[in-house]
Every structure is written in structure tokens, then in C-alpha cells.
Amino acid sequence: MTTSPKPDPSPRAAGGLVVAVDGPSSSGKSTVGAEAARRLRYRFCDTGLLYRAVAWLALERGIAPADVPALLPLAAEVVLVADARGRLRHVEADGRDVTHEVRGADVDRAVSDYSKVPELRAALVPRQRDLAGEGGIIMAGRDIGTVILPDADVKIYLSASAEERARRRAVQRGTVDETEADRILDELRRRDSIDSSRETAPLRIASDAVVIRTDGNSFEQTVGAVVQAIRAAEGAARVR
Ligand code: DC
């Protein structure tokens, strides 16, 4: 197992539900999911960090997505790290915390091309499933409700238009330049297209997912909607 030991998991974590949160790039899965997990005292895992860290290592070492034999061993070098609340929001590679590096523009550009490699995806499946085993977890990604945890107790799909997502990203980066804002939108559309059209585990809305449309929502409203969906499922699970 290549995740760090879980420090002080929340008292409710072990009894809680398994929650899948999927959605496109910059739909807020990670920030919304982590905040919902904090409120519910669930663990949280941002699975995009695994793909990002592998892509970062591959770029560092000059390994192309097509070079599968060289790419595959990188998966074992990537370690998710839990914060004090048991949220897996940091990643180590090459023996150091690279959470900041993996969110850089180079990785943004390249990560979809690495994450569509079927062999790499297959190598990462058991690691993600192992994490969900004891329940009390919100796991965010692209294929969590469809492929990784098809039996999740709650499936949430966060949707937002490309324009809204690009606007949020531009705000995050402090960008005021219109050309740069257009570039962010183009890049998001390009990644959406690769993530949704790849052959293995494309981004799809699971048939049993609750779709939360976040255009025009505040962060608080979206977190509230996610927490409400999970609490409703917890209530239903108690009366079953
Ligand atoms: O959510 P993110 O932008 O950090 O994800 C980075 C990349 O990883 C993105 O191109 C899609 C891919 N990814 C994936 O294919 N499956 C996941 N479960 C999570 C992320």
C-alpha cells in the first residue's frame, strides 16, 4: 500500500458511507469534496493527484505517454499523504512533497495524455479501491462512480460550464489578462475533450449520480448541496 499511515482518522470515518464525486477539470471536486469531508468528518481523497504526480515524474524524466514500460513503474513511486484530518490532499514523489509542482501549467497541459493510458489506469485502480474499503470517505475524480467504486453509497457529479470553470481558474490564478483567460478556456476544453473521449474510463455521469450544477453557485452553496446529499443517504441507510 503506498498511502501514508492515516493520522487520527475521524471518529465517524469507519462507519460512514462511501461517496464518489466526479466532474470535469476545475469543477470544484477537490475543494468542495475536502470541505464536505471536513464537515462530515469523513476522509477525503483527490485521485487527480495520483495522475498529476505520475505525469509530473514522467515530464521530469522525459518519459512520453506512449512509453508504457517506462511509465508504469512511476505509479509505485507516487505516495498520497494525509493531513491531520485524514484528507489525502498532498502527494509525494521522488521522496518529497510535490503537491504544488503537480498543479503547475506543464502538468496541466500534459496530464490528460498520461491519464488516458489504460495500463497506468489499471495500475491505479486497486490503490483507489483499497482506500474506500473501510467507508467514511469522499473520493473525487473522473471515473470514481462509474469504474473505481461502482457500488458507492452516494454518487455526485459536479457540473459547471467550461466558461464558468475557466473564470474560476482565472480568479484562482489572479489573471486579469483577457488573452490569458482565453488560453485557460481553450486548455480546459482540450482537457475535457481528452478526458471524455478516451477509451478507458472516460468522464461520464453515472446513471445513479446526483448531478449538482454549480454555475452561479457560491462555494458555500455547492458544499451545502453535497453535504445535504450525503446526509440524506446516511439517513436512508439508518432506516434500512
Ligand atoms: O481532477 P484533476 O484536474 O486534478 O485531474 C488531473 C487529470 O487526471 C485529468 O486530466 C483527468 C485525470 N484523472 C482521471 O483520469 N481519473 C481520475 N479519477 C482523476 C483524474
- β-strand percent reads 15-25%
In percent, how helical is the residue content? 40-55%
- What's the count of strands? 8
Largest β-sheet summary: 8 strands, mixed
Describe the global form.
Answer: globular
Order of helices and strands: EHEHHEEEHHEHEHHEH
Structure description:
There is one protein chain. The protein is of the alpha/beta class and 240 residues long. It has helices spanning 29-40, 48-61, 68-75, 105-115, 118-132, 144-148, 162-172, 178-197, 219-239, and strands spanning 18-22, 43-46, 79-82, 87-93, 96-97, 137-141, 154-159, 210-213. Strands 1, 2, 3, 4, 5, 6, 7 and 8 form an eight-stranded mixed beta sheet that branches. Bound molecules: 2'-deoxycytidine-5'-monophosphate. Residues 25, 47-48, 51-52, 111-112, 115, 141-144, 191, 195 line the site of 2'-deoxycytidine-5'-monophosphate. 2'-deoxycytidine-5'-monophosphate (DC) binds next to helix 2, helix 4 and helix 8.
